[in-house]
Amino acid sequence: MNIQDTIFKNDEKISYLLRSLYARYGYSHFKMSQFEEYDLYVRNKDFLISDSIITFTDTNGKLMALKPDVTFSILKNSKYAPGSVQRYYYNENVYRVSKDTQAFKEIMQTGLECIGDIDRYSIFEVLTLAAKSLQTISDSCVLTVSYLDFIYEIMDSISLSTDEKNAMLKCMGEKNLHELSKLCAESGVDAARADALCQLASCYGKPETVLPRLKKLLTGLVKEETLASFKNLMEILMSARWSEILRIDFSVVSDMKYYNGIVFKGFVEGVPVSVLSGGQYDRLMEKMGHKSRAIGFAVYLDSLRRQNMPKNYDADVALLYNEGVSADGLHRAAEALREEGLTVQLQRTLPPKAKYGKILQFQDGEVTAVEADA
Q: DSSP 3-state helix, strand, coil percentages of the chain (rounded to 5)?
């Protein structure tokens, strides 16, 4: 299945397949209200993809918001139980400013959150589900993984302001090595650490290629247990058949106030932006007063829809027939096509403006192709 396949004709089908996947792993469906109190979001606007929020005053005088995010609502309703992990998946419309039109848009978002005493298996499970989500969308996909703790440990060993750290993170995200080197020099970062940050920013590839390079680059700059933890997780993922789609990429970065540890993005062939994004956000949990840890991701179906994708079809096949044909034969011909996984619409004449993957004709008990200009 690839980006041209019928799965892309139907967002609901993708969403259904993803929800079924998450449910098989024991994730419970989280359903939220259309509205939340505005205060829930305003304190953590930096965590949101867009800080523009639609608000209104409720009849009781409270300032409410059309939800721009699902994670906050899940965190608000989660209860910490020592030693346990809560697993939720969601399929919700959120309201954000569109990158295309710069106007507010209702966006369907499917994703999951894993909250509680997160351990190595929890992280592995979420990354596994991220990989499986991408493969549900397309066989041609890549899951890029970064480890913020490497970057944080290097930066925390230097006297840097939050603004300086964020500026460096931005350069790393853009792979802007020239500006990153300049910032390091202006901030008094020593040569070894400046070189490590620049090499990390340009570091990309399969784990078996990158891991030896990381050990050589980071030994003495980060804790041995930090290196060992990341190496172990990558090796587990590689042994779980994800080697072909897994890439290490330290240009995948996130806001230091909220994220830590593993962060990741997912890409599919033919779409120039990430269709999946996630990571650990223990720092957000701490900021919100939670004792638990958390990791999750979201699949952005609108990223698929808004690109230069093939137009949605009304059906894969239009099967044309003439009056008086055998109803039984026509039915069997249509069912044979449906058994191939195709959607089939029967018509005597083509409706105006209808779109089909291909047009076939049923006549004299046979199915034949119809020329495109017929």
A: 40, 25, 35
**Angstrom distance (rounded) from CA 192 to CA 2:** 44
Q: How many CA atoms lie within 13 A of 238 on its CB side?
A: 14
Q: In this structure, are 213 and 170 located in the same domain?
A: yes
Amino acid letter, 205: G
Task: Give the pLDDT confidence of 87-99 residue by residue, as tens digits.
Answer: 999 988 777 766 6
For the sheet with 204-205, list strands across it. 28-29, 85-97, 104-116, 293-300, 276-280, 260-268, 141-147, 246-249, 204-205
Residue 307 Cα distances to 100, 107, 131, 293, angstroms: 10, 14, 21, 35
Cα Rg, the chain, nearest whole Å: 25
- 374 in a structural domain: no
- Is residue 25 in some structural domain? yes
Shared domain check, 224 and 191: yes
Q: Is residue 349 situated within a structural domain? A: yes
* Encoded amino acid at 189, one letter: V
Q: Is residue 252 part of a domain?
A: no
What is the span of the domain harbouring residue 200? 142-246
- Residues 223 and 287 occupy one common structural domain: no
At 281 the three-state DSSP class reads coil
Partners of 56 in the β-ladder: 64
Residue 99 pLDDT:
63
Tokens of 143: 């899951």
Helix, coil or strand: residue 252: coil
Instruction: Please compute the mean of the pLDDT values over residues 1-6 and round it to a whole number.
Output: 43
Query: What CA–CA distance (Å, rounded) separates 65 from 54?
Result: 6
Predicted TM-score of the model (pTM)? 0.77
Cα separation, 224 vs 128, in Å, equals 25
CA distance 44 to 48: 7
3-state DSSP assignment of residue 64: strand
Q: How many residues appear in the chain? A: 374
